[in-house]
Amino acid sequence: MKSTTASRFLSLLVTLLMPVALVLTAVRILLTPAFLIFEYNTPGFPPDRFGFAKEDRLYWANIAVDYLLNDEGIEFLGDLRFPENQLTPPESCQFMDDCTRLYNDRELQHMLDVKAVVQTALVVWYISLMGLVGLGIWAKFGGWWALYLGGMGRGGWLTVGLLVAILLFVLFAFGLIFVAFHNVFFESGTWTFLFSDTLIRLFPERFWRDTFLAVGLLAGGAGLVLGLVFRKHK
């Protein structure tokens, strides 16, 4: 590429795309049955005091994750019912039909909102990956490959820096960052539930703390590798 200014601008674009790609890749990895199995088997993971065994949690949680990734409507979750031998009516239910439903209306609305966020994040993920691949091809044949690798390295370090700050917040002030995260993506008051609600029984606060940490470790670790591998490129 003849224009040094243009090539350096594109290298900067690579740097900015890397944290997006790495973080969302980590998120996509966690939206799998493997992470659920790992998480529910971590030492000290709180049991469900309303009767779900570990196997029940895995079964219902996998269906919830499937919903976030598929093209089905909310009836995919809305039609689910507690098995008779597991029926533990939520404290908020007023009618027997409400008590047999796995998710109440408030939970279903939240899952609609979560699905919208997840689907948007996946689109952004695809765009970031395609952008990096496209820029990589351009760099290889356009004469600015070293700058591309340098951009990847800087993007790796940028990811590490951002995630170290976030991980410190998670470790020492998880409640604050958890509330802030939800207030950014969801309308206030739509994401709080009773301890007896299914979403809390399947995904207690410990689950989300570990998820934030896992995203930080996966994306930050990948960023560290990129930063070290391409540290000589500028």
Task: Explain this structure.
The chain is built from 9 helices and no strands. 72% of the residues lie in helices and 0% in strands. The chain starts with a helix and ends in a 5-residue tail after the last helix. It is elongated, with a radius of gyration of 21 Å. With 234 residues, the protein is mostly helical.
Topology:
Blueprint (H helix, E strand, L loop, with lengths): L3 H27 L2 H8 L13 H16 L5 H4 L17 H5 L4 H38 L2 H41 L12 H5 L2 H25 L5
List keywords for this structure.
9 helices, 234 residues, mainly alpha, single chain
Question: Distance between the terminal alpha carbons, to the nearest Å?
Answer: 16 Å
Mean pLDDT over the full residue set: 87
* Strand portion: under 5%
Query: What are the segments in which pLDDT stays under 50 over at least 5 consecutive residues?
Result: none
**Record field, number of beta strands:** 0
Helix content: over 70%
Provide the gyration radius in Å: 21 Å
Derived structural class: mainly alpha
Order of helices and strands: HHHHHHHHH
Major pleated sheet: none
**Shape label:** elongated
Number of helices: 9
Compact overview of the structure:
The protein has 234 residues and is an all-alpha fold.
